[in-house]
């Protein structure tokens, strides 16, 4: 480790070049990069930076593979390599490698000392302060995205209640600055686009810049998700400072911005329970509009949000989710609803209807009619997160001998077989649903062998394995 530590903790070799002769000499010398800065020229020795980068990357591997066994080195590396490396602005690859090392080192320390140990708490306090410092806006957008990833992966390691109110306020302050600069970049691109001739394609640099911004928004989204997951409603006071951004994003012509806002609203619904109703004026209409969005990913996010409102939001959301049922069914009926681009929105709509019927049906009129209609939104054979909700609800209907299920028993059985064959339901869920399917076979006199003839060889094999004794 000592040689590795020496390389990883190396300082940048920097020379301030004052005259043309010096600059010319350094231009001829290999291993130096010249950077203009405020009328001066700075020479940076790149060979040292490359060695530092590779050494830091190796530390990431060691920490990941050795876990608790790497603990003896964690404090020294964190203090002398990783945390200083986050702000090593001379070389972005060093910063990125440092960002990847931080959660790995925290995990090693946590494995060695325990999740709630005073040793880990002390290291976390030092680490979090430094991470928050580097979330501020900067020129290198892809590197800033890596800093947000470092943040949320580190919070995930420490877990529940790892942030104080002050930490959350500081995070929001950094996020606010980042979002403001993002909006400025988008506005500038729109202005440039208006100046281009009709039919002229966007430049490669512009496309790369858009991609970097999308990555940044994605990593910011994951950061918000992780905070809500671990802090719950205690994050709401800080988070609410960003509501003006959501109001702008949710109605924006840019589908990426709409999706970003929808996903965070979903997190509010999922992790803040009935307290989410406080923000219903900011949530209800975006979900309604989102279910009608032309972009499938946005329909998916909106459908998921309605289901979560039913499942986690309590009675306050009962009327709203009931009113959303026609829109959810409409999502399942769009042209090409089962094709790749649309199928995840379709299956999320199916699952959300099941969540409403199972968890929050107090304001749903004609529940039995809705159940009968819902059966035609099956199967769920792509989305492994949505499928268990839909099929566990279906299993309950079978166990209750629901008339709609018995009246359409063949279709219900095939929907179960397809999910088992696609493995969107597995383990205990698959066993539970298969057990209910066997009850359906007996209760409704399902002719399995007749159904087999209509199905693919793969699905036939699944049915034989689960339901036909050899």
Structural commentary:
By secondary structure, this protein is mostly helical. The chain is 70% helix and 3% strand. The protein has 24 helices and 3 strands. It has helices at residues 2-8, 20-28, 46-66, 71-86, 92-113, 118-133, 141-158, 165-195, 204-231, 236-239, 243-250, 255-271, 280-291, 296-312, 318-323, 325-331, 343-359, 367-374, 387-399, 403-407, 409-422, 427-444, 448-452, 457-467; strands at residues 14-17, 32-37, 40-45. Strands 1-3-2 form a 3-stranded antiparallel sheet. Strand 2 (32-37) and strand 3 form a beta hairpin. The longest helix is centred in the middle third of the chain and has 31 residues, at 165-195. The model has no long low-confidence stretch (mean pLDDT 92).
List the helices and strands and how they pair.
Elements: H1 2-8, E1 14-17, H2 20-28, E2 32-37, E3 40-45, H3 46-66, H4 71-86, H5 92-113, H6 118-133, H7 141-158, H8 165-195, H9 204-231, H10 236-239, H11 243-250, H12 255-271, H13 280-291, H14 296-312, H15 318-323, H16 325-331, H17 343-359, H18 367-374, H19 387-399, H20 403-407, H21 409-422, H22 427-444, H23 448-452, H24 457-467
Antiparallel strand pairs: 1-3, 2-3
Helix pairs in contact: 1-3, 3-5, 4-5, 4-6, 5-6, 5-7, 6-7, 6-8, 7-9, 8-9, 9-12, 11-12, 12-14, 13-14, 14-17, 16-17, 17-18, 17-19, 19-22, 21-22, 21-24
């Amino acid at each position: 480790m000592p040689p590795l530590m020496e390389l990883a903790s190396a300082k940048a070799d920097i020379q301030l070049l004052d005259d043309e002769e010096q600059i010319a000499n350094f231009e001829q010398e290999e291993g130096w990069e010249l950077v203009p800065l405020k009328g001066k020229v700075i020479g940076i020795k790149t060979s040292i930076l490359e060695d530092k980068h590779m050494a830091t990357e190796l530390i990431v591997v060691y920490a990941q593979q050795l876990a608790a066994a790497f603990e003896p080195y964690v404090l020294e590396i964190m203090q002398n390599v990783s945390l200083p490396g986050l702000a090593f602005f001379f070389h972005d690859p060093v910063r990125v490698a440092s960002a990847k090392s931080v959660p790995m080192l925290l995990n090693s320390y946590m494995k060695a000392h325990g999740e709630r140990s005073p040793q880990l708490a002390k290291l976390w306090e030092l680490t979090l302060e430094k991470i928050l410092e580097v979330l501020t806006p900067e020129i290198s957008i892809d590197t800033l995205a890596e800093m947000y990833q470092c943040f949320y992966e580190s919070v995930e390691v420490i877990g529940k209640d790892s942030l104080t109110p002050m930490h959350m306020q500081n995070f929001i302050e950094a996020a606010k600055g980042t979002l403001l600069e993002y909006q400025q970049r988008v506005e500038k691109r729109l202005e440039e686009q208006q100046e281009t001739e009709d039919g002229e394609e966007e430049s490669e640099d512009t496309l790369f810049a858009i991609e970097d911004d999308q990555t940044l928004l994605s990593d910011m989204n994951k950061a918000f998700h992780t905070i809500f997951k671990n802090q719950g409603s205690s994050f709401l006071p800080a988070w609410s400072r960003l509501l003006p951004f959501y109001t702008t994003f949710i109605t924006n012509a840019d589908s990426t911005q709409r999706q970003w806002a929808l996903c965070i609203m979903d997190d509010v619904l999922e992790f803040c329970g009935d307290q989410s109703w406080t923000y219903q004026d900011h949530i209800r209409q975006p979900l309604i509009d989102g279910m009608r969005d032309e972009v499938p990913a946005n329909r998916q996010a909106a459908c998921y949000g309605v289901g979560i409102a039913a499942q986690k939001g309590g009675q306050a959301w009962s009327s709203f989710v009931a009113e959303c049922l026609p829109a959810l069914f409409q999502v399942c009926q769009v042209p090409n609803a089962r094709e790749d681009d649309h199928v995840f929105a379709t299956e999320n709509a199916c699952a959300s209807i099941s969540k409403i019927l199972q968890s929050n049906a107090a304001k749903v009129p004609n529940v039995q009619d809705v159940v009968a209609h819902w059966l035609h939104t099956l199967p769920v054979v792509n989305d492994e997160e949505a499928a268990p909700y839909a099929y566990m609800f279906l299993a309950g209907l079978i166990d209750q001998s629901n008339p709609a299920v018995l009246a359409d028993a063949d279709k219900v059985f095939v929907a179960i077989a397809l999910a088992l064959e696609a493995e969107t339901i597995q383990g205990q869920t698959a066993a539970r649903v298969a057990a209910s399917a066997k009850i359906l076979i007996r209760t409704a006199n399902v002719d399995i062998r007749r159904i087999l003839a209509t199905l693919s060889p793969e699905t036939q094999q699944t049915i034989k394995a689960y339901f036909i004794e050899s």
